[in-house]
Amino acid sequence: MGIPATPHPTHGLVVIQPLKHRRCSACRRGPLSLLVLENGAPRCLDCADLGHLVLLPRGDTALTRRSREESALSAVVVRFNRRKGRYERQGVLVEEAALVRAEERCLADAEARRQRRARDARRRGVEDERFAAAFAAEILRLFPGCPAERARAIAAHASVRGSGRVGRSAAGRALSEGAVVSAVVAGVRHADTPYDQLLMSGVPRHEARRRIAPAVEGVLRTWQETGEEDAG
Ligand SMILES: [Zn+2]
Questions:
Q1: Which residue, 29, 38, 144, 161, shows the most beta carbons closer than 10 Å to its own?
Q2: Which residue range or ranges hold the DUF2293 domain (predicted)?
Q3: Structural domain spans, the chain
Q4: Angle value at C-alpha 105, between 112 and 63, nearest 5 degrees
Q5: How far is the CA of 23 from the centre of ligand 1 (A)?
Q6: pLDDT tens digit sequence for 36-64
Q7: How many angstroms separate the alpha carbon of residue 26 from the centre of ligand 1?
Q8: Angle made by CA atoms 65, 69, 74, in degrees to the nearest 5
Q9: DSSP three-state, residue 193
């Protein structure tokens, strides 16, 4: 048996990837990797006036659709699947210039998506900065004696996006007093006490926290006082 007579019921040009060795009935060239059936007779692409087209394998839906839109002449490439008893699309033949234009359109889309991602990232950056500024302001409201630079550092550390630190928790977002105090305590613990050294020297965490608790309390008390009361 040869190739079934009707490879594709749809409109448009159909090019076949033959399963058997076939020769062109016009120029006798062969075996053909691609052929067109004209009145049941195989023709090579050159004899069918399709030799200038290039094959775009299936897989990229957007590129395929655009290539066919851009191409004055195009053909669907099919191959017969014996097991399934039907022809299956392998790709399309399109003009090379059309494929180039379609690729440029797809790249432009990718570039547009990249620019949108960059815009989103900038917007998130602005949101992060606003959040950190609000957080720092709340620290200074609760701890007026806290140096502004320390407040900014603690707020920035606490509000790093996606870090899961207190600033990104629901409570931190709402700038609840508890969340702000927790962030300040953590900042003081690491910066103003030997907490980190204790941990590094093998002191258990709860024991280290117990030892530095008075130092943390002292710093918080100082920061809770306003500048005027700080004399002496
Ligand atoms: Zn031929």
A1: 144
A2: 139-224
A3: 13-105, 143-226
A4: 115
A5: 8
A6: 999 999 999 999 999 999 999 999 999 99
A7: 5
A8: 90
A9: coil
